[in-house]
Amino acid sequence: MANVVVVGAGLAGLPAAYELRHFLPGDSTVTLISDQPEFTFIPGLIQVALNLKSLKHVQLDLASLAQRHGLNWMPGKVTAMDPERQHLIVEGQGLVKYDALLIATGASLAFDEIPGLGPHGGYTQSVCSPDHTLLAREAWLKFLENPGPIVVGAAPGAGCFGPAYEFALMAEHELRRRGLKEQAPITYLTPEPYVGHLGVSDVKNARELTASLMQKRGIQVVENAAIQSVSPSVVTLADGQEFPFRYSMILPSFRGAKFIRDVPGLASPKGFIPILPNQNHPRFSTIYAAGVSVQLTQPDQTLVPIGLPKSGQMAEAMATAAAHNIAVDLGAIQGSHKVPTLEALCFAEFGETGIAYIAAPVLPDPKTGKRKRSY
Fold first, then answer.
1. Going by C-beta distance under 8 Å and a sequence separation of 6 or more, which residues neighbour residue 142?
2. Looking at the DSSP assignment, which residues form a beta bridge with residue 38?
3. N or C end of the chain: smaller count of CB under 10 Å?
4. Sign of dihedral through CA atoms 365, 368, 373, 374?
5. Cα–Cα nearest to 205, from 360, 354, 357
6. Chain mean pLDDT for the chain
């Protein structure tokens, strides 16, 4: 009998919990912990922010999902953990012990790294969480009544650029549909070394297709942009360039959850968890990680720092491998460890069209510098 705990119920945590329940015997417990009552399909939040879909359209109730799949549902926020004693402290729940722990918390949003960034105490919007998205939608509806310049982009250190492109292009489509395009010029500010880099260099045709589409849509692109500060109506770059806005959506850089950062030796300085090929922590053998919480190093040296994207497909691949390997390590199933192939298949919706980006794998072979395929 084992007690396996999964922290986080997103694109990594939820499928991992399902897989664990499938692999482990009935007398073992799979506990799913999340500080959110719903599973949210984060890529769908852009359409919510632009008032094209309701928030309910991209959410599922976690309590009912847990009951349906035989999981022990525990709502609450993890505030501390002790890897040596193998327990967590969960707000409102107390001490939770585990035989194996899978951390799939996603990321904390580092708005505080740039003055004026973010919806809470800042001047820009975000589509990284449900509550931020509702604020972004409210601001968007007000903006439509009195349109003006739009600034969309990503902060230095960001690694997931797809949502920024998608937001800019879908906003352009919506403005064009409403006959407001001429009143609302869009500028895209990115730390990427070139448009269409997306945190993954040399993806075949990505640069040409993305640049062509941005140009066709009349979106001004500023590459190697290091956002330094944001005032109520201006985004300022480190080189002194200023971009006025009436509406702005800027993706922040990510870091690990606070309870992870608080444990010495558990994670990188930014709170991302190092892993072995089997998703296991190299020091704490009962801890595994998957998804955005995992440390993956960006191999490219760029003028402005950028991270490496961790797509939903990558998160799910890591999660299913981790669940299998936990079951093997607990003796619940026979077999060798699985090592996930970290491939990225990203669909970006751009209004009446879109682009699919494929990088397989995301990190090229270290010997040849090549991928099996990219499109």
1. none
2. 61
3. N
4. positive
5. 357
6. 93
Q: Is the pTM of this model over 0.70?
A: yes
128 phi, psi to nearest 5 deg: -95, -10
Q: Before 361, cis peptide (omega within 30)?
A: yes
- Distances from the Cα of 253 to the Cαs of 37, 108, 190, 222, 309, in angstroms? 25, 9, 12, 18, 11
C-alpha 207: how far from chain center:
22
Beta strands in 209-285 (DSSP E): 220-222, 227-230, 234-237, 242-244, 247-251, 254-255
For the chain, state the CA radius of gyration: 21
Q: Where are the alpha helices (DSSP H) in 78-155?
A: 130-145
Cα distance between residue 252 and residue 150, in whole Å = 17
158, 254 in Cβ contact below 8 A?
A: yes
Q: Is 272 helix (H, G, I), strand (E, B) or coil?
A: coil
83, two tokens: 């890897």
Answer yes or no: are the C-beta atoms of 290 and 282 closer than 8 Å.
no
All structural domains of the chain: 3-47+55-107+256-342 (3.50.50.100), 111-253 (3.50.50.60)
Task: Give the least confident one: 12-21, 134-143, 178-187, 200-209.
Answer: 200-209
The residues carrying an active-site annotation are 160, 346
Mean pLDDT in residue range 143-166: 96
